[in-house]
From TrEMBL, chain A:
The keyword rRNA processing does not apply. It comes from the Bacteria. The keyword Zinc does not apply. This is ABC transporter permease subunit. Its main location: membrane. Keywords: Cell membrane, Membrane, Transmembrane, Transmembrane helix, Transport. It is found in: Cell membrane. The chain crosses the membrane at residues 12-32, 72-93, 105-127, 155-180, 201-224, 265-284. InterPro entries: ABC_transporter_permease, MetI-like, MetI-like_sf. It is a multi-pass membrane protein. Residues 67-280 form the ABC transmembrane type-1 domain.
Amino acid sequence: MVRKNRGYITLFLLPTVALFIIVYAVSLVILFSTSFTEWSAGRSPVFIGLANYIKLFTDDADFRQSALNTGIWVVLQSTVHVAIGTLFAVILSMKEFYWKFARTVYMFPNIISGAAVGMLFLCMLNPEFGAVNSIVRLFGNADYSQNWFMDYATAFLSVTMTWLPYAAVVTILILAEIAAIPESLFESARIDGASNFKINLYIIIPMLRNIIGTCVILSGTSMLQKMDIILMTTGGGPGNQTMNLPIYIYKTALMDNNFGYSNSVGVFLIGFGLIFVLLCRNLFRIGSSQN
Amino acid sequence: MQKSLYKAGCTLAGMLMLTMSITACGSGNSAENNGAAATAGSGNAAAPAAKAPVKISYLTFRVGTHASAKMEEEQIKQFNAKYGNEVEVVVEEIPSDAAYVDKIKILAASGDVPDVVMGKDGINDVLIKGNLATPFNDYLDKDAEWKAAIGEDALASNTRDGKIWSISDQKQNIGYFYNKEMFDKAGIKPAETWDEFMSNNEKLKAAGFVPLALMTGENAWTSNLILAAMIGTNGENGKTFMNTLHPTDFNTPEMIQALNMMKELLEKYTTKDALGAGYANAANAFSQGKAAMIANGPWMIGDFSDPTKSSEGFDAKVGVAAYPNNSLISTYEVGYMIGAKTPETRDAAEKFIKFKTGLEGQTLALEYGNVMPVSSEVQPSDALKEKYPIMVESITVAQKTQLHYRTLDSIVYPNVTDAWKNLYPKLAAGRATAEEIAKELTEIAAKNK
């Protein structure tokens, strides 16, 4: 049967494979090969061996800070963010009277574009007219002013708070998984006298291992692409306090006009992402049976 | 047999569709850059009337709420009315200056730039180095009238190794605007020295006003104009620095002194949101009467009587002044470049640029965008003078100044322009001294490729 359909299988796979080759594989090959070159816009790449990588790891403070920030954000997003989303899903799964309303409201930040979210926070945290400072002024010091995005003490946290708590995608994925758990399991547990807390802790959460692993990968890797909100709010500053690898790639390519070096950072970012995904797959044994 | 024929047919059809889609993707512009940087003017100078108009591509960021959007729209409209049967300008709108610069640089990396390009923020360097632009020498040699309309100084500012790479469409004479009412209440007049400027700030603050509308986000435009003035007026070395293209050493006493003064301004004499603020925040602070001064060019004049931006009668409160030491920022815009690849499109691009930068285009720019022309032949109309008296004042101030220098944006590498947004907060927070910032600027300039 399989042999009979082999022609069709090949035929229908062909467009996808061709598109993958054109869009991704070719780009990856170009990215990797030009990372060993000196290449700027309008000029031909010149092979320089490992020079870009040597500079990257030995003599580039901005790269180190960007990699560190990216790493911190990946860890925060794959732990705190996923934990918030999971907790919210477990609460919503109890289907109290508010659950549909809460689920919809929690989704709002995820359906607004990143640039709009950035603009929203930029206004809310504006030191002159922002809502946050105005509220603080209402309850205390009338002269209170905090430049949340540009003060070294608050910049990193302020940027982080523009995405960390909004885990609606995680919540929805986990809610769907909880809905798939057979009701009989809960009934048995209740007959045995288990409380809701114990059901959540010993039945639901262990059975969510696969989906939590998937959420960790999705959330963590989303931080490897995060750029719009940072560009809108801090631009990587003050100094390089909130710079991450995508912003650094943007700056080296389009501001320094150094595409070769920028691509070496790109290769590092892809490698970083692959290692993270592999680690998560092994840690959560994604794809294997719950038992 | 029938089945295998059907299978073969399907496979063939699939392959054909795939091939066609791939071919279509790559057929956008197959013309080779056949010696684009070679001498221009070799194409058909006058196309036959019956011939279809030559299509040229043009990307513009002067759209939407941009200060020059109206000017751009009018120039294109009038060009189409005059030359629409010869040249068809295919306009693509880009939402911001920064997005425009990014897009052109990415296109340049693939060797495929639009037919007409604005060479701002380092785009000219990329196109020249990449052999992607055509110099104007031959075109200008054939058209003395156009050459005269641009003027020697404007042409010289865009000439490298004898080749004129772009045509400037405007002269930027930039001082600062001040709120006369606030100045009167503080008992001050526009400063003639930097000591007086700092003392004015203190007096304005004492009178309960925020002295300066500064901003460090985006390209730190309003802050950098003042920084440029501080450097440019600091002796012969400062003046030379501010008139040097692509300075590589920022470790100069003039730069360090200016940075120290700027630190003081950011700490004591500006709005609370200046660190990280964009141009809109600073412009709003001045137009809404929340700050006493803003450094900016005459294109802002229209905002003072625009009810959506300023309160009623605000334009009557605004005065314009030169910087201390009777000085002014005076620079020619980089202007337009030819990125076209074939003789036919090169000629069409030249025609479009000639219209935009000739006397007619300069007049439109002045009337619709308050943009200062490069030619002294173009003067504001009586209607414009009546509508914007401050425009006349601005021209008078410019004529009286004796010391001129350029903007930082027009002399430094693009990566230096981009760095200010990160460096100013560092300086203001005391995380780096002026000397350290100067050193960093030098290192950043060295990174430019």
